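User: My advisor, Dr. K., asked me to get a structural model of this assembly before our group meeting. I'm new to this, so sorry if the format is off. These are the inputs:
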Amino acid sequence: MKMMYGMLTALAPAAIFSVFAFGWDALIRIVVGVSTAIVAEFLYQKIAGRKVTATDGSAMVTGLLLSMAVSVSTPVYAVAASVAFGIVAGKQLLGGLGKNLFNPAMFGRLFYLFVFPDSILPWRPPFDVTTSATPLELLRETGQTNGYSILDMFLGRIPGSIGEISSIALILGFSYLVIRKFVRWRIPAAAFSVVLILAVIAGQNPLYHFFAGSLMLGACFMATDPMTSPRFEKGQLILGAGVGLIIMSMRWWGWQTPGVYVFTEGTTFAVLTMNLFVPWFNRLFKPVKKAAPKPA
Amino acid sequence: MFDNSFVRFLSVAVVMFAVGYIRYGVGLARLKREGEVEEKARTAMATTAKKWSLVAAFLYMVGMVSVAGLFL
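Assistant: The format is fine. Below is the predicted structure of the whole assembly, which you can bring to the meeting.
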């Protein structure tokens, strides 16, 4: 429970920034997301006859993460439906916290991308930004990583999902999680390392990739979910590397496949795909207990 | 047909239900053949069926978006 409320604290800077950037529309979607998550979990547990844990913080984290991962243009009912699906199918169906296979927020986001594709666009620019093209859209059009200044991307003066635009706010929150030891830091470390290496090889600015899209939100706050990430260090590093590799692949080649537009970002697909391997990673990298030496 | 969000949602629900139901049925038949009567085995089989239905939903949604190009 302490960890879940710690996660909420860590997400607060990005959430608060999003309200300043996008106004009431962002706040409404965040409130709807969090409250829908609590209600969905409460109702499911009541109907299923289980102990109600809707206020342990985990549902709120799912609702907050998902509402931060959608566009501010998304209708409120789409946010609510996606959160409810994420909670019910992504989490409660297998028994609740600790038993889920997929990260519930990402599973709900996949549902959102599939069921409500028309609500993704347009990307409303924050503050006085005049263009609605996201950094990744500009990368796709030009093949260059100079569409926006790195400072603008770091501070959050770019279009994008509600909670992904301000890298500084996300970094502050993630630092809090690392200091409190609430997060498996090897996962984002591996993800960003792979992104760095691949960007350098391609002659692109790695910082542009770091601060663009939902890499930071996904790698730091979703791929690190303790219930759906590997327990052991090697597994965490491989999962993080896999997330980074899939994201970069989607950013470079995803848009070339008709219909893959919504996965231009790749974070949703990357995290959920790597979630599938977690049980195997846990079995593979489980430390072997050494047998006690036989007495002479 | 897939222009409608409700139809898309229904399609996901159908895929999940169909895969879960079939997997549970197949698993249950195997348990009966093996003479397994414990409730614990049936519960474990139900959990397996639910996992299959979630993976099927994931593959279906990703496949429909990327391969079928539903967003064209």
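One thing worth pointing out at the meeting: The longest helix of chain A spans residues 24-48.

User: Perfect, thanks a lot.
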